[in-house]
Amino acid sequence: AHNSFYSIASIPADGIGPEVIAAGIETLQALAQTLQTFELQFHHYDWSSETYRKTGKYIPDGGLDELKKHDAILFGAVGAPDVPDHISLWGLRLAICQPLQQYANVRPTRILRGTESPLRRCETGDLDWVIVRENSEGEYAGQGGRSHRGFPWEIATETAIFSRHGVERIMRFAFETAQKRPRKHLTVVSKSNAQRNGMVLWDEVAVEIAREFPDVQVDKMLVDAMTTRMVLKPKSIDTIVASNLHADILSDLAAALAGSIGIAPTSNLDPTRQHPSMFEPIHGSAFDITGKGVANPVATFWTAAEMLDWLGEKDAARQLMQCVETVCESGTLTPDLGGMATTKDVTAAVVAEIRKLP
Ligand code: NAI
Ligand code: MG
């Protein structure tokens, strides 16, 4: 048989990033060895807040061109206690997403077998969502400024940008995502009652694109009402599309409702496949548990499965998630899921499940 070969850039970065990425790579390599259907080669980039302290930059000159040579990017988390968060986020993560045109951020959420939702009477299968987040403009376009710094009349502006091009491409991607799922249902999240320009364009484009997808059922929801629907009627939701800011907030809520931020994955996709896409756990660098060996690696395993799926290794992706869920069900859980296992325990258990695959 002819194996597919993939070159993967790994950027573990800060805090628990290196701990969970090491676990992810170990698991992926065990899967590749066992299945013998694909091969992965990892290239490590030590870009982090440590690099920033030493050189004043997160990404060295020419770094982005290096990244473009790979098939995908596996990212840990960025953020350090002594670096302001807007510097670290814009210096590394957004500095990759924006130039590589990773305009679709995808966040699947469900309750894994063996884990519990904090919602009463919400079991595995009752909550199965995909949140599609606009990842290139909106409220995080980076436009705005500050004047009269330090004076009582200081002002700051943060301008949200909604371009027809940007909204059309994310809506089309969201409809395609919904169309591929069994329920074919999309909720368009908006705030067009209060934000009467950008969000009104957003709504109008959603209606236009909907005509291209007659088989997808659509509804619209204001973002504040969406939070209550997520908590009170989780079964009524399937695929969600929202702006950069709205989806950022909704997806943290989604992760918590599914049990823990320690299990949630996210993909930063360039749907045109011109550039490599980037895959990362949703969580941050978690200073409070860094070095303690208890970071939950499940978010990174799920992230790895999402990466394999995007690369076309759909069977491998599904098998990896089966192994992860079997381990969760066996009670090998880190403290964030109510267990006592370490990162290494969970990783070893998942690797052992992988070795049992036919
Ligand atoms: P965080 O996600 O790092 O931590 C929030 C809480 O969740 C903490 O109590 C942490 O211990 C827990 N947690 C997170 N991941 C976990 C895991 N895998 N297993 C078990 N528990 C886990 O968010 P926080 O504290 O707001 O931010 C810390 C730093 O991370 C900041 O510098 C922030 O800017 C950065 N950050 C980076 C992100 C990224 O690189 N994409 C995303 C979110 C935050
Ligand atoms: Mg966030």
Secondary structure layout plus pairing:
Blueprint (H helix, E strand, L loop, with lengths): L3 E10 L3 H19 L2 E7 L4 H7 L7 H6 L3 E6 L7 H13 L6 E7 L17 E7 L3 E10 L7 E7 L2 H16 L5 E6 L7 H13 L6 E6 H10 L6 E4 L1 H14 L7 E5 L7 E5 L16 H14 L2 H16 L13 H13 L3
Parallel strand pairs: 1-2, 1-3, 3-12, 5-10, 8-9, 8-10
Antiparallel strand pairs: 4-5, 4-11, 6-7, 11-12
Bound molecules: 1,4-dihydronicotinamide adenine dinucleotide and magnesium ion.
The site of 1,4-dihydronicotinamide adenine dinucleotide (NAI) has 22 residues, from α4.
Structure, explained:
With 358 residues, the protein is an alpha/beta fold. The chain has helices spanning 17-35, 49-55, 63-68, 85-97, 164-179, 198-210, 223-232, 244-257, 298-311, 314-329, 343-355; strands spanning 4-13, 38-44, 72-77, 104-110, 128-134, 138-147, 155-161, 185-190, 217-222, 239-242, 265-269, 277-281. It has a 10-stranded mixed β-sheet with strand order 2-1-3-12-11-4-5-10-8-9, sandwiched between helices. It has a two-stranded antiparallel sheet with strand order 6-7. The longest helix has 19 residues, at 17-35. The two termini are 16 Å apart. Magnesium ion (MG) binds at residues 248, 252.
CATH class assignment of the largest domain: Alpha Beta
Per CATH, the architecture of the largest domain is: 3-Layer(aba) Sandwich
- Main pleated sheet: 10 strands, mixed
* Number of helical elements: 11
Q: How far apart are the first and last residues' alpha carbons, in Å?
A: 16 Å
Radius of gyration: 20 Å
Number of strands: 12
* Class per helix and strand makeup: alpha/beta
Strand content: 15-25%
Bound molecules: 1,4-dihydronicotinamide adenine dinucleotide, magnesium ion
Please tell me the overall pLDDT: 96
Work out the helicity level: 25-40%
CATH topology annotation of the largest domain:
Isopropylmalate Dehydrogenase
Spatial shape = globular
Show unreliable segments: none
In order across it, which strands form the biggest sheet? 2-1-3-12-11-4-5-10-8-9
